[in-house]
Amino acid sequence: MAKELKELTSREENYSQWYNDLVVKAGLAENSAVRGCMVIKPYGYAIWEKMQRALDDMFKATGHVNAYFPLLIPKSFFSREASHVEGFAKECAVVTHYRLKTSPDGKGVVVDPEAKLEEELIVRPTSETIIWATYKNWIQSYRDLPVLCNQWANVVRWEMRTRLFLRTAEFLWQEGHTAHATKEEAIEETYRMVGVYRDFAEQWMSVPVIVGRKTDNERFAGAEDTLCIEALMQDGKALQSGTSHFLGQNFSKAFDVQFADREGRLDYVWATSWGVSTRLMGALIMAHSDNNGLVLPPKLAPIQVVMVPIYKGEEELKQIVEKFEGIAAELKKRGISVKIDDRDNVRSGFKFAEYELKGVPLRLAMGPRDMQNGTIEVARRDTLAKETVSQEGLAGLLENLLVEIQENIFAKAVKFRREMTTPVDTYDEFKRVLDEKGGFVLAHWDGTGETELQIKNETKATIRCIPFDAPEEEGKCILTGKPSKRRVIFARSY
Fold first, then answer.
1. Which of 235, 136, 137 is nearest to 440 (CA)?
2. What is the pTM for the complete model shown?
3. Do 229 and 198 meet the contact criterion of CB atoms below 8 Å apart?
4. C-alpha closest to that of 6 among 357, 255, 412, 256
């Protein structure tokens, strides 16, 4: 394990390589035999499961239910909503045949040319079209509304440049799709769900986020409005971490989903969609981790407390493990996940390094002298601090420490974001801050797509969002000098 850590590229030397090394060496994921796809390993999937569980509870608390819709979507469905198909056309994987046959030379298999589909099928890049074709069968009257569905699924977007968790050809996500009787209800839902994402990011992931609105250029294909949460990574780049879309009546009109209101008049349904993906795993890694490995907030750590016995001989090991089992039982009563590492084929130093690499929030170590003195060593992953404490009242102490670690990780990320957020008033200053410092740059913008695109082409910085809490202030666009009433957030991003 010392060798594994030695081979972990430092953040300062090469942030991108550090990230890739960490994902692989901490056992989160690896590249698969299919180019651009990944294998999520058990430890990585355990983190994703905790994310899923927390989000699913939050969705259900707001009245949503889970369903599942087909992976394959008829090509014609994408033609019904013009901006939607334009937005996804270059990323679609297409199924053209339904059968293989033995190769004429007997060496393997080939596509059977006689098995061509009458209509090609698209492997879902997102599910608006197939879901709204289904909702047409579900919705006839105002009594059928609202429909509040979510699905946990995989999607495929044919990415050419991929990176584990952040951008892969296939990824896991949830996508909510709701139908409403009024525009006001749908807009309220759009805001509610971006608020759910903010709460999850900050309270579970310990990642502070900016909540705001996407510009017209950055808006979801087929939406009238896109809300988002934006996070800042430790290399000063932004990461879009969740989006919530007000779809208006675009999809209900495309798929002729109408309902009779209380007066019997027909109207088109109002819609939203919203989603987060395994990209959140990338955010979790990049927002907190260090050159020793992962730093996981306790709420999402698969193992919250690991116990390592220090011993000589089987009898000492047995006694220490028995003591650990008693402590573990107390912790489990408090809902804390525990692992006792009693492996006898690796040294304790190897175990310490391994759990540091994997980001386990608390590590306990106990030897014969601790047994005799009624003490135990407690090491925190977030600060790397160690102290020897009494075994009396240990469960309560550790429970409080986990809360403290969660809060400390968040506070550290908030401080970093504050230090990496810079207001600028000129284009020269804007470019200098981007090149020398990075982070979120607060600047005035004239509100036009042309200006936004020119800045992007010249600096590789995009408008991450127009923050909800941006105060009104008179200013001038950094590029054109035209009037502007508020600053927006620019950043280079993933």
1. 235
2. 0.96
3. yes
4. 357
